[in-house]
Amino acid sequence: MAVIPGSVSWLWIQVSNFWNGLTALSMCLLFLALSLLFDHVKRRKPPNRFPPGPTPLPFFGNVLLFLRKKPVVFFKSLQKKYGPVVSFQFGWINIIMLSGFKIVKEAHGPKAENFVDRSPFPLFSMLGRGKKCQGVLVATCSDGWREQRKFIVSSLKNFGVGKKSIEKRICEEARYLCSEFSSKEGSLFDPQTLVNRAVGNIFCLIALGDRFDYNDENFIKIMHLTEGLLTGVAKNLIQFIFLGSWFSYIPGPHHKVKQTFEAYRAFIIEIINEHKKTRDPTCPRDLTDAFLEEIEKAKGNPESSFNEPNLVVLLCEMLGVGVETTAATMRWGLLCMILHPDIQKKVQDEIDAVIGRTKSPTMEDQPNMPYTTAVIYEIQRWADIAPYTIPYVAQKDTEIGKFIIPKDTIVFTNLSSVLKDETVWEKPHEFYPENFLDANGQLVKREAFLPFSIGRHACPGEQLAKAELFIFFTSILQHFTLCSPKNSPRPTDERVYAITVNPVPFQMCAIPR
């Protein structure tokens, strides 16, 4: 074999290394080219009259732009730049946001049936949901969802909502809450825990059959687990809504949420088992008894949504989101009265004139209290605790404004843009109860007032929430003046975005009147 001279050998090695390097570079470039081609095919060219939006990045879509800002800032910037119907992408998923009263009214008016179905959220299977146990809140528009929503509405009515019986219990709970406020003797305290437990007790009464003492060990446990679950879902909301079930196999904080849910489920199952032992099929005490009776009736029907896993999910939704939405509104109400003592004084004057200082407020008083009612409405509008609907799916190609929303596209409504629409409200960005009053001081119904969402998925507990807000709010102001201590910093009205929009935790004094 011929021996290659040293200089030639060195040259041969250099050429070989160059060729190998070139091959590796070529492979990388080929992989990149194929990946971009795959991304292009997956993304596809949008159809004619598709809503405008920011240019998506390969693979990521607009996720990185979303992560750079708070969601509310991101969505406001999209609306400002592209208009009331705007599109963006998470990965390869097209999402459309509807904003402004005019567009939202069009979509949820004559075309509402095109936007009824929910997008499936596969990752929620980590939180006990399955084909026959979807609950109500994030369920697809199936027979099971219709069955469960009908059950919730009828159960709320059967167990007193809209009747004197539940109103009486709300008044009793208001007295317990005011007693707790009174025990503070005018000193500084954070009202969050007390408000949460007062509202939570009304749902416990309906769902579990009785209220709890605020210091009851089981009550503290269920409230703590509920708050932990809501916090966990809020921190991982994008994953739970937009990522597939495959994400459940990847390590991450969403697994801690699952652990919290498992602890919550175990506790709820204990309550359900206790109900099984003590219930009378002929006389249901609460929603849990009523659901267990429906399970008995549904035996042998594999298509029924009445099963124990679904009862756990339903109780989770009621004691979680049901409590949190009303409690968050109440916390905003207390803060608004501290920040606007002149408005607080007007409410108290109306309470004194209509109800007095000794009689408990009832819903019969509300028609005679336009200013107080306007203030409560304004708290709901200005606090804007649920700024966006849970996403749904267009069931067929639908024209909205001058755009076409293709079938199967994910859509959600920007409720915040309706509650703060500058073409509708006189002072949309200020706390201004006169938004709901005419020149004579009488209450005005506003079509753009949508605090309980809109469409077929609107809150089924709206009537209960209205009663709680009016009775709790008026009872507190009947007996106390809310304020911050002298020479202390004024509480901020900045917002904390979680499952609901909350005020920054604050402390206050409740001075007996």
Could you explain how this protein is built, in words?
With 513 residues, the chain is α+β, with helices and mostly antiparallel strands. It has a domain at 120-384 and 433-512: Orthogonal Bundle (Cytochrome p450). Helices cover 51% and strands 7% of the residues. It has 16 helices and ten strands. The protein has helices at 6-43, 63-68, 71-82, 101-107, 143-158, 164-183, 192-208, 217-235, 237-242, 254-278, 287-298, 308-339, 341-354, 370-383, 415-419, 462-479; strands at residues 85-90, 93-98, 392-393, 398-400, 403-405, 410-413, 480-483, 495-497, 501-503, 509-512. It has a four-stranded mixed β-sheet. Strands 4-5 form a two-stranded antiparallel sheet. Strand 4 (398-400) and strand 5 (403-405) form a beta hairpin. It starts with 5 loop residues before the first helix and ends with a strand. The mean pLDDT is 84.
Features:
two-stranded antiparallel ribbon; 10 strands; single chain; 513 residues; alpha+beta; 16 helices
Order of helices and strands: HHHEEHHHHHHHHHHHEEEEHHEEEE
CATH topology of one domain: Cytochrome p450
The coarse overall form would be globular
Would you identify the CATH H-level superfamily of one domain? Answer: Cytochrome P450
- Poorly predicted runs of 5 or more residues: none
Strand count, sense and barrel status of the largest sheet are: 4 strands, mixed
What topology, given as strand order, has the largest sheet? Answer: 1-2-6-3
Number of strands: 10
Content-based structural category = alpha+beta
The CATH class of one domain turns out to be: Mainly Alpha
Indicate the CATH architecture of one domain: Orthogonal Bundle
Which percent range describes the beta-strand content?
Answer: 5-15%
Gyration radius (Cα, Å) is: 28 Å
Q: How far apart lie the N and C ends?
A: 110 Å
Oligomer: single chain
